[in-house]
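Lab notes, practical 5.
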Amino acid sequence: MDNPFSIIIDKENLSPTIRIQGEVDIHTCPELNQKLNILISEGHKTLILNLEKVHYIDSTGLGIIAHAARNIQPDNGKLVLISSKPQIKKLIEMSGLKDKNIRLFETESSALESLVS
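Output from the prediction step:
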């Protein structure tokens, strides 16, 4: 049942898609933070975080997401989160992150569609 943590970055679309699997917690956040900071420093204005295979996010993980959103915001950037899991969606909504420059979608295709229109 335990999914090993992994991050796959896909740069085929206009905005990089970061597909995360496993738990986003104090142990895995340093790697996620490093990869997000690299993408932001490369000048990407929009990042897509696919959390569909994430089954747990702790407060450290929420902090990393908020930090990335804050770092990309000065350039009118946005962070697009993808998850259809009720517990992940509720966590994002209750944390207030959705009120920032973060948008939440249930599917990757709907997220990509919104970026083009």
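Observations recorded by the TA: The longest strand covers residues 46-57. Residues 24 and 57 are 5 Å apart (CA to CA).
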